[in-house]
Amino acid sequence: MGYLTLSFYFSFLDESRMHGVYRNFLIGIGSFHVAVNGSHMLKIDLHLHSCFSNDAVGTPEDLMKVLQKRGLQGMALTDHNTIEGCRKMQKIGSKDFLVIPGIEISTADGHLLGLNVAEDIPRNLSVEETVERVIDLGGEPIVPHLFRLLSGIKKEKLKPIQKNISAIEVFNGCSVPATNLKTAKVARAWNLGGTGGSDSHDPAYAGFAYTVVDSTDCRIDSVLSEIRKKRTWGEGVTIPLSYRRDRMVLSIRQFVHRGFKRI
Ligand SMILES: [Fe+2]
Question: 25 CA distance to ligand 1 centroid (A)?
Fold first, then answer.
């Protein structure tokens, strides 16, 4: 109880950035996994799209600039079904800002993030096989936006992959707070760690959600190791409704345009 109270106390102290009320609520749950020690943590947006996704704008460099301005220490580029942007951005990271190559793969069962993946992985494989492919490539599979209608992996599908994943995305910037909370509860119930990512398709919203890593070691291996130890969590604020509504309209239009095929 004291630990939880302390977590809330620190989260109120750290309200100077753009992060608001939901952060405080979720960090309380997050403290189950993460020791709250103010500035001695890394904040990394682990779910971002650039112009290399065919439904997003902005270059990887644009994303990095915005995230640095917002005080984050890293990002994972997770374009839809391609690592082309990751290949082109290899040189943009620095010792103070971590850039993790990644991908968001459209599996037959919904979307899956692969962190530290440097090769394309075919789409439409089962989620079980896709998780194995990510691991074989030295990457870390993360289940994003669990309850999303068209692209979320169904909760029942967690069971067959549970032993091979360490974390699910407990805070997605495009999901409403109630859904993020529901996902956070699933992570706790299934003894999984959590990540956070803005799922931004426009640099203006990069960093709205991020992963808290209880470390100051700004290296890919170190961050992945913390995820594997289930010691990370996600927090942030939800992207404004006006933008999410416009994106939903656009997504439906693109879905129809593709002949009712999911991205
Ligand atoms: Fe995404």
Answer: 24
